[in-house]
Specification:
heterodimer; A: about 350 residues; alpha+beta; CV3147-like; 10-stranded mixed β-sheet; 7-stranded antiparallel β-sheet; B: alpha/beta; Nucleotidyltransferase, domain 5; globular; S-Me-THD-like_C (chain A); DUF917 domain-containing protein (chain A); S-Me-THD_N (chain A); S-Me-THD_N_sf (chain A)
Amino acid sequence: MGTTREITLSDLDDISRGAAILGTGGGGDPYIGRLLATAALREHGPVPLVDLGELEPGAAVLPVAMMGAPTVMVEKLPSVDQIGLAATTLATYLGRELTHVACAEAGGVNSLIPVAAAAQLGLPLVDADGMGRAFPEIQMVLPTLYGIRATPMAIADEKGNRGVLDTVDNHWAERLARSATIDMGCSAMISTYAMTGAQARDSLVPGTLSLCAELGALVRSARAGFRDPVDAVVARLGGRRLFTGKVTDVVRRTVTGFARGEATLAGMDGDTGAELVLRFQNEHLVAERDGTTVAAVPDLVCTLDRESGEAVTTESLRYGQRLTVIAAPADPRWHSPEGLALAGPAYFGYEVAR
Amino acid sequence: MRIGIDVGGTNTDAVLLDGRRVLAAVKTSTTEDVTSGIVTAIGELQRQHAFDPAAVRAVMIGTTHFINALVEARRLAPTAALRLSLPAGASLPPMVDWPRRLVDAISGRAYLCHGGHEFDGRHIAELDEGELRKAAEDMGRAGVRSVAISSVFSPVNAEFETRAAEIVAAELPGVAISLSHEIGRIGLLERENATVVNAALRELAAHIVDGLASSVSGAGITAPLYLSQNDGTLMDVDFARRYPVATFASGPTNSMRGAAVLSGLDTCAVVDVGGTTSDIGVLAGGFPREATTDVSVAGIRTNFRMPDVLSIGIGGGSLVTGEPADVAVGPRSVGYELTAKALVFGGDTLTATDIAVAAGRVAIGDPERVAHLDPDLVRAALGRIAADAADAVDRMRTSAEPLPVVAVGGGSILLPDELAGTGEVHRPEHYAVANAIGAAIAQIGGEVDRVYAIEPGHRDSVVDEAKQEAVDRAVAAGASPSTVEIVDFDEVPIPYLPGNATRIRVKAVGDLQLGG
């Protein structure tokens, strides 16, 4: 394991800042995740970070995530035991010795929760995730395209309640997990998509935790050097600037448990006179410039503060904010017919000519 | 008549107002004990414009004293943070993200007990009264003098905080108790942080408020005394004793609101030029636009509602360096040593004030001492200041519409009469005491911030109910009912929750009802 790196306390700020960018407006504020990871690293020491390519085919990899409402997560904080409980519960059910923890999504709070879980369980963390970004629903991960199932999955609350779901398909997993989460008070730890090392190498998006750390460091150093942090992010993601403007209107409504809405931006700088509309469901889904779609899921649409380059979540969008909106390509597998069916614009109810 | 007083770190400013007319305005030095500076300021007002103390209907004080006490970590009480959340929450105990030196400064002790609510009102766990008594006993042994109590989802249901306060008060009579649902909103750590900070300031608040009250009554004034809060509204002294944390952002708020009154503009950008920095904020409808991100104070994350202020490093004491082609102004400053170090005061450092004197914008100190300055350098430095200020104002603008700019503060002579891209700079009379005027004209507010479960078809009645409650709170706090209006309304659906859970925030304000 000559190439093993470690996640230490000093990496967490950068990971958190980068995770908020890949969160594409959703994923929850990584602040709580950063604090949990900080507390766990203080207690248990650094977490070894393993490249996807280094995984033994027989490794037992368990992604860990927090499931629930971001508004609840900032109010009802986890217990100490809860953080690793879903993973150990699932391992017991599977009758396997757990060897690695992984991230279900790269973005927001769930980039940091697995760091805390790995530290607590004394296990290495895989430098990869199931989405390469954040999406709102459990089945929206690339392993789904490889026939890897969400269940058996485990869910655990702060009281010590644990549940194992073994469902007929991933949509049932989403449905049952969601109702269990609500009964558990809308903030639960889950472990799902148990996979072998070989499956992880095939199906996960490699290097995304490193990418979070790198994005965070780029923003930090660009700002320190008085360079444009947005440029640095766009260049690293191979993306493009869509628009710079001021938020002039935000409309929100709750549809089937999700926060859907639109934000309108009036152009500034080179975009003066134009208008951009962002449509979101927790995460940004579609960006329309003067009525024409210019970016859409599964690609990443990120809202960054025009000055600082910090990600701005859809929850915190407010009149008057000055934002730069960027788009970045998703993992190419998301653009396959199966990928688009899972998390493309049509799934979210948008017709987009492509 | 009313008196407005602003107690800053350096200056204590006071104004005597009749309606919105300024009868007298004075600037004096802030004193270590705060109160003797206020006595001096009221005496100066009396000299400038003789008035009958009995004719003063209200005294409003804005102060940065409490935020400074936190930043400087002095005069803070030994404090305990008691959180009702178990079995949840133990992963991140109270004060987990605080700078070590501040935890030490308040001898901070954290206690976790059972309790708290789920988002839908269920109990996470029942209160364990024996456990609470044990915690209180331990606090007593450790010499804790102030207690902050937080409970999960207390902004939605405060019953556990209230009950725990009764138990702690019974065990520890005389100890000050601060409850999180009265101080912050959703977001446990931020709300709890603000509550712990408040608790640590309670003893100081009692001391200062007593001092303020006695210095005002010592001047023969019998009118009620108010302190200004972060959002530009007032609190009475009893409230101020219990919630000193609510004064934290009153400084910039008062200076912006004062600028609005002085200029007659209620939607404008305000540039407050001090000695080291200039603060730029935006007023909409007479109230400062609030920051949308969480605000850190002295390294502690809070969710106070603070005005959105952009600070740039240009002030009267800013160092001016370089040649005309590459002149730099600030961010380094001689600060409070301006009267010793600036050229016009016989010092040897070229400051922005020297540039203003050389350009004939203001006559202070000895103009002869800057007569030798290269006119090109003077022009270039003023150009630099104007360009930086114009850029900052532009960054704060929220629409392409031209936004009038009001310049206040002692250093505002540095600004030109017109800013590129925004137009005329309004420089109202009494600009140097805008903050004291802002304190004097502050209004009384009432606020509601709660999560509601909205049944289909009942949105309007829920919204009306929330608005009425905010209005009722403003009136209960002393606002004249006929003047109360809703100034802020925000409705945010909460994702993933069933039953259309929606967080509604309403703020109502009205003019202070003046007695007699």
